[in-house]
Design a protein that fits this description.
Number of strands: 9
Strand order of the largest sheet: 1-7-6-5
Radius of gyration: 16 Å
Helix content: 25-40%
CATH topology: CBS-domain
Low-confidence stretches: 136-155
Number of helices: 5
Strand content: 15-25%
Number of domains: 1
Structural class: alpha/beta
CATH superfamily: CBS-domain
Shape: globular
Distance between the termini: 34 Å
CATH architecture: Roll
Mean pLDDT: 83
Amino acid sequence: MLVRDVMARGAATIGPGETLQAAARTMRATGASMLVVSEGGRLLGLITDRDLVTRAVAEGRDPAWSPVHGTMTPQVVACGEDDDLVTAARRMEEHAVRWLVVLDGEGEPAGVLGVDDLAAVDRSLAARVRERTGAPERIAPEVWVPAWEGEETWP
């Protein structure tokens, strides 16, 4: 099965100068848990609902004033529409991401592929990706949060 058969076409987008509050409202309005950050047709990054919580809220940023570019993930991992799902899942595992931007034949964003999209057609493949992307050693150190003295936890 190919990525084009499973992906969500036409990802919701937001500009890097928009506020985190605007990002959250766009997510709510579109039902998306991830937005593509772009400006002038240029892909700049991604912002997820998880980014909003583990970066912005955890650090006490004011969502009404804080811009998306300060919280977004600038590393965008992509795949092609014609890639098979196993290749796409391996890319997710390799980069410890839950989302891939899907590019069309001209290299333009055509949509997104999330781990939930994988789960809809292959639960074991999605489980492997979830296991790798949720592994504590793969999470960036800045999101490590001490729960209370003597114990640490992951957000």
